[in-house]
Design a protein that fits this description.
By secondary structure, this protein is an alpha+beta fold. It has 12 helices and 19 strands. Strands 3, 4, 5, 6, 7, 8, 17, 18 and 19 form a 9-stranded mixed beta sheet that branches. Strands 9, 11, 12, 14, 15 and 16 form a 6-stranded antiparallel beta sheet that branches. Strands 1-2 form a two-stranded antiparallel sheet. The longest helix has 21 residues, at about 280-300. The model has no long low-confidence stretch (mean pLDDT about 95). Bound molecules: glyoxylic acid and manganese (II) ion (2 copies). One manganese (II) ion (MN) binds near residues 79, 86, 118 and 372.
Length: about 400
């Protein structure tokens, strides 16, 4: 099987142009640009001899016939300020491998672009619902930070839906190529990472409510300042987590909304996201306990009302040993001595697919470890090496 690097790179740049903003891309799930990209992808799938299929949440499959096939892909939605490769690389590399496989007379490769991997409405929502990790009725109630619901989001694609959710049992496995999104491969000068596992994640929304008041006349000791509560919580939490975490554990307050958000008003309300990730389920649980205890203490001491929304999450997942070996052998053939096994700190749709089939992932370096940022980039030679490793590994599966 001979993948065509020029055809692959051209497709990747064509997709980049839909929603391009400077060097980055803005194509959040169910936005006009996301839907435009999915329609374009469907046409690409058809040109490659694959049958496009939109499921009820907008996951787009390119099916290689009705029989069993290997599923490959990633996602084409982006972060609110996204890079051009996060997700797009895995979809276009999968499409190129599918084209090369068709030209070589096999194996059967189906391609997918999952919807809302970036979690505008939750965490990897499209693949999670497809895989049965969350019911559609539950997912429909998820709300984005702009107040829209998942039901409203997916309604924007209703006219494209081909039919019900596809049976995951028709796929023999799932292989996803992705940028690393971290610094390890770039720093070591290696070309390829064979993923060993994907971290688990927990996310919840916390609301602190105090009282908005005049910022000039309200004495400090009488304030019920929601931002001060958030700031103290953050500081105290960092201290308390120190004894529980490993160097790989991460936690983030990435979205904050202050009300009324005026320079001369004591903030009466702070709504913020609390997210944490680790490869160990017990540690995720211990962190949850510390988070809940700390925020309750801080809110109590400052006279703030506390409300904690539902927690959603994904469990840590190990990659399939046999598929990892195929990727490792292909990596050694294409980039001798310049690859490693490594865990993924980013989430991926492979976690959802793993509920039903063996899964594996391949990483290529991210320049300076930058991702979820317009500056995200990867050297062209690394993109092509990744494509070749992927194609070689798939061909070796027979
Ligand atoms: C997905 O990109 C994530 O890891 O947040
Ligand atoms: Mn991604
Ligand atoms: Mn991402």
């Amino acid at each position: 099987m001979q993948p065509n690097p020029e055809r692959f790179l051209k497709s990747l740049h064509d997709l980049r142009s839909i929603g391009a903003v400077g060097t980055g891309v803005v194509r959040p799930a169910y936005s006009d640009k996301d839907i435009e990209a999915r329609k374009w992808l469907a046409a690409q799938f058809r040109d490659a001899g694959l049958t496009p299929y939109f499921d009820p949440v907008g996951n787009l499959f390119g099916l290689a016939g009705d029989g069993p096939s290997l599923l490959m892909g990633s996602h084409s939605d982006t972060q609110p300020e996204g890079g051009w490769l996060d997700g797009a690389l895995g979809v276009m590399a999968a499409l190129e491998v599918a084209r090369a496989a068709k030209e070589a007379g096999g194996p059967a490769i189906s391609v997918v672009s999952f919807q809302d991997e970036e979690g505008r409405y939750g965490v990897t929502t499209g693949s999670t619902v497809w895989a049965g990790g969350r019911s559609l009725a539950e997912a429909d109630k998820l709300t984005a930070s702009d107040g829209t619901t998942y039901a409203e989001g997916r309604a924007k694609m209703a006219d494209l839906v081909s039919g019900d959710f596809l049976d995951p049992g028709r796929f023999t496995g799932y292989v996803e190529m992705h940028i690393e999104q971290g610094p390890y491969l770039d720093t070591s000068g290696e070309a390829v990472g064979v993923v060993s596992s994907i971290v688990g994640i927990r996310v919840m929304e916390i609301t602190l409510t105090g009282q908005s008041n005049h910022a000039g006349t309200t004495p400090m000791h009488l304030r019920r300042d929601a931002f001060q509560g958030l700031a103290e919580f953050n500081q105290t939490l960092n201290d308390r987590l120190r004894n529980v975490v490993t160097p790989e554990t991460v936690w983030t307050i990435g979205h904050v909304s202050l009300t009324p958000n005026g320079a001369s008003i004591v903030p009466g309300k702070a709504v913020f996201s609390m997210q944490w990730r680790d490869g160990d389920t017990d540690r995720l649980k211990r962190m949850e306990g510390i988070i809940r205890e700390t925020i309750a203490e801080v809110a109590g001491a400052r006279g703030l009302e506390l409300s904690i929304g539902p927690m959603i999450g994904l469990e840590p997942v190990a990659m399939d040993a046999q598929l990892q070996s195929a990727l490792a052998e292909a990596a050694e053939a294409e980039a001798p001595g310049k690859w490693r096994h490594m865990p993924s700190g980013a989430l991926h749709d492979a976690t959802s697919a793993a509920r039903h089939m063996p899964v594996a992932m391949l990483f290529v370096p991210s320049i300076n470890g930058i991702s979820h940022n317009f500056d995200e980039d990867t050297r062209e030679e690394d993109l092509v090496t990744g494509l070749k490793v992927l194609a070689r590994a798939v061909a070796s599966l027979g």
